[in-house]
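Case study 2.
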Amino acid sequence: MHRPELVLPAGDLEKLKTALLFGADAVYLGGKDFNLRAFAGNLTIPEMATGLEYAHALGKKVYITVNILAHNRDINSLPPYLEELQQLSVDGLIISDPGVMRLAKKYASHIPVTISTQANVSNYESAAFYQDLGAVRVVLARELTLDEIAHIKRQVEIELEIFVHGAMCVSYSGRCLLSHYMAGRSANQGACAHPCRYKYSVVEEKRPGKYYAIEEDERGSYIFNSCDLCLLEYLPQLIDVGVNAFKVEGRMKSPLYVASVARIYRQVIDLYVNQGHTGTEQEIKGWMEELWAVATRPFTNGFIEGESPLIQDINRQEMPMRTDFCGMVKGYHRGLVEIEQRNNFGPGDPLQFVVPNGRIIDLQLRQLFDAEGNLLDRARHPRQKVFIPFDQPVLENSILRRAGERHEE
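Prediction:
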């Protein structure tokens, strides 16, 4: 049985390391220009070099997104950037624009090209078209059923990658004009203001100034607000039809999100590939609880079984089980765990360490010290270095989280 590649987002170097340590086979990231997450941390060329060195030491890969829909003003700047990426020997480029792909063949000809989901590939002739142009992989549009994916796989040799987890868009595979129209920020240039998450009312043309809420609840309507995709339970079927790579959305999410999703999807893939086991009902419930703990919106299976009536989160449902990202473990010295704080925490909080080897360790926090050894009641300051007495070593790059409330059925 083939083992699909698990590809996680890396909005910055910290998330790159987190994704790889917690189970990703590869990461995708953007530079400071030409990618569709302009407000993610993104990486400079020297940072990319550092990330590549780190990934390659682990036997893993780094893909660079160059997936804007380019305008004429972008063209002159692309060749030197592509040449820099070739000098770095990045493992792949993710491209949506045919013009950018043409430039990549000229200025970065040694780098394999993946066609972005932004290209909206939804049939086998489109996949074959990009195969003929020399692409090695295509990220299919999210709007495909399992049967359609299987049909495409039977017709082409090019590798297929699909999104299995993360935010969806109100527009077809992310091609959206709402943001540009409403906020002057083009989603197709990486500057999306996420207007599909806004609250909307209706205006009748003969009654200007009178706004009528489409009332799903007392807060108004969120008819454009899409749920988050989660195809965890479909991974065995997707492996069986031959999908080559599973992709997770979230370059602007926290390291806790990256770690949690990578850890769970790694477990499910390995369990099926190594043992042919799809998970017991109890195991599936546990996996889903871990994913719910870092979710911002309800989950949907998207289009995998045909168009679902549950794609839009019209009630803007809150996630009661959501965990908080409290800090990164920087080391363990003489019985003290060193934490770089990311969120206010202190004694009495239900804290846990999430460890790269897959373990979750409960922490009963009784004492907390600053770098000078002073006793603290809370870790309050962003990126403050604090120390926690603990009776066992905790691996560097583990994550400290505050557990969310669980609701028993």
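The radius of gyration is 22 Å.
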